[in-house]
Amino acid sequence: MKPADVFDRDEEWRALTEFAGPGPGARLGVVTGRRRVGKSFLLRRLAAGGVYHQAIAEERRPALDRVGALVAERAGLPDGSVHPVDWVSAFDALGSMPAPVDVPLVVVDELPYLLEHSPELLSVIQRWYDALPPDSPVRLVLCGSSLSTMSALLTGAQPLRGRAALDLRLSPFDYRVMRDHWAIDSPAVAFDVHAAVGGSPGYRALSLGAVPQHAADFPEWLGATLLNPAHALYREDDYLLREEPRISDRALYQSLLASIAQGDTTPTAIGRRLGRDRTSLAALLRVLVDAGFVERGADIGNQRAVTYTVADPILRFSRLLIAPYRPLLDEGRWRAVWDVSGPTWSSQVRGPHAETVFAEWVRRYASLDTIGGLPVRLGRFTLADERNRSRLELDLAGERADGTYSFLAEVKAGGALVGIEQLERLQRARELLGARGRDAKLVIAALGGFTAELVHAGTRPDVELVDLDRLYGGD
Questions:
Q1: Rounded to whole angstroms, how far apart are CA atoms 12 and 166?
Q2: DSSP code of residue 327
Q3: SS3 label, residue 411
Q4: Residue 467 sits in a domain of what CATH number?
Q5: Could you tell me where the DSSP H helices lie in 341-457?
Q6: Residue 206's domain spans which residues?
């Protein structure tokens, strides 16, 4: 049974308990997830009665001694009596401990810290695991926050390739679950909090009980948390980048993230802002994508048009509203910063976040009738309108398996009512698509609501209007 203090995570808990349950032969599992998504929280509860070891950033000798101390404690031996000379003897010692339960579970958390000084460890684990007898009940879980390191464990010529029975990646809560986790009544406030910190459950605990419930509470909450130099979230962007071992020059990668957050979504635009040739950015951008900090997308109408967006809301917020004003924030002048950051918050934080939330609504919650059938691809869409000598850029479109379009969408995050002109743009886009877009639904999502004229047009069977209540309420 899932512990009472585990919020949501039903599917993840089911996968973990099935993996850790009884059955023939040893099993190896890999659990991955960004900082503060709750990996360690889940695994400590899973390993109740088993062996849980969380590595820390330290040198090789102290790391081995910590394993020795764990073995001594669990085996009832005197403190300091177990001194593994290397990782072979360390895992042999772990395997020789008396099993406290019928199905022994060993969890090694934050594995990338150990790999930094002991790259041979994966081969040691392979040797140890392969030497277990065929009827061994051992369950070994390897966990870590570096997405690039953990994602590579089971690929190519890696020693553990082909051995894992579990490959679980924990994601942050989606925007609806996050609202429930924070217990925020207002959809508008829940959206703004999610736009600032995203859905990682660990951020709720760091708020120290402070939860904004009304729009007037939100700036005060920011002043006490993200914009507060004494708060842990103030430098969360730097902590996140430290989790990725391939990022040594954090200033360079922070500049890349800032460029993308400011709207430079193509390699050419990023290179122009940073004064670098676009080809020299390919490897740097690949590191950010592999680490889960940036998402790489393509225009549905032109797969060669590569775009990049910041994947984590707190990284976007940090680059746009904290980093440029850090000297002022260090002096406690968060109100002045917030007052001058209104346009940035509206257009560069809430705007992109509204598109992300709408795309998540399409994937998770919208009925197939609402979006015109099952899309196999989602993405931005750019069309050339030769008659008007312009380009139509749509925030989101869905393409079916047969190449036709299920829906075309615009997303507006501003407070003003959205009018009929947005529907006319979508109608023009559908017209340009011809037969491929003939029956595409026209979807407009607007956080600020719609004009009466557009509401009337929304009664048409080919038009869907999505407001905040619909985003958060169900379909």
A1: 11
A2: H
A3: strand
A4: 3.40.1350.10
A5: 342-344, 351-364, 420-433, 452-457
A6: 175-225
* Cβ contact 250:241 at 8 Å: yes
155 belongs to a structural domain: yes
Q: End of a domain among 317, 332, 347?
A: 332
Same domain assignment for residues 368 and 398: yes
Q: Which two tokens stand for residue 179?
A: 């609202």
Are the C-beta atoms of residues 197 and 203 closer than 8 Å to each other? yes
102 confidence band (pLDDT: 50, 70, 90) = low
Answer for the pair 47, 105: CB distance below 8 angstroms, yes or no. Answer: yes
Distance CA 467, CA 408 (A): 16
Tokens of 215: 């729009």
In the predicted model, what is the mean pLDDT of residues 31-53?
92
By three-state DSSP, how is residue 273 classified? Answer: helix
DSSP letter assigned to residue 235:
G
- The position carrying tokens 């870590």 is 144
pTM for the full model? Answer: 0.93
Among residues 130, 155, 170, the one where a domain terminates is: 170
Q: What is the largest CA-CA distance in the chain?
A: 84
pLDDT-derived band at 101, boundaries 50, 70, 90: low
Q: What is the mean pLDDT of residues 239-248?
A: 89
Domain-embedded: residue 134: yes
Q: Do 422 and 452 contact (CB within 8 A), yes or no?
A: no
Q: How far apart are CA 316 and CA 215, in angstroms?
A: 21
CB of 9 within 8 A of CB of 42?
yes
In angstroms, the CA 140 to CA 133 distance is 14
Identify whether residues 28 and 132 lie together within a single domain: yes
Determine the Cα–Cα distance for residues 176 and 190; give it in Å rounded to an integer.
9
Report how far residue 362's alpha carbon sits from residue 364's, in angstroms, rounded to the nearest whole number.
6
- Number of domains present in the structure of the chain: 4
Run of H or E residues at 96: helix 87-96
Report yes or no on 338 lying in a domain: no
Q: Are residues 89 and 146 in the same domain?
A: yes
The residue length of the chain stands at 475
Angle at 366 between CA 361 and CA 370, to 5 degrees: 130
Domain assignment present for residue 348? The answer is no
Instruction: Find the radius of gyration of the CA atoms of the chain.
Output: 25
Distance CA 112, CA 161 (A): 17
Q: Rounded to whole angstroms, how far apart are CA atoms 63 and 61?
A: 5
Q: What is the pLDDT of residues 163-218, one digit of tens each?
A: 999 999 999 999 999 999 999 999 999 999 999 999 999 999 998 778 999 999 99
* CATH, residue 252: 1.10.10.10
362 shares its domain with 464: yes
CA distances from 446 to 120, 232, 373, 392, 450 (A): 53, 33, 22, 19, 7
List, in sequence order, the alpha helices (H) in 76-146: 87-96, 111-117, 121-130
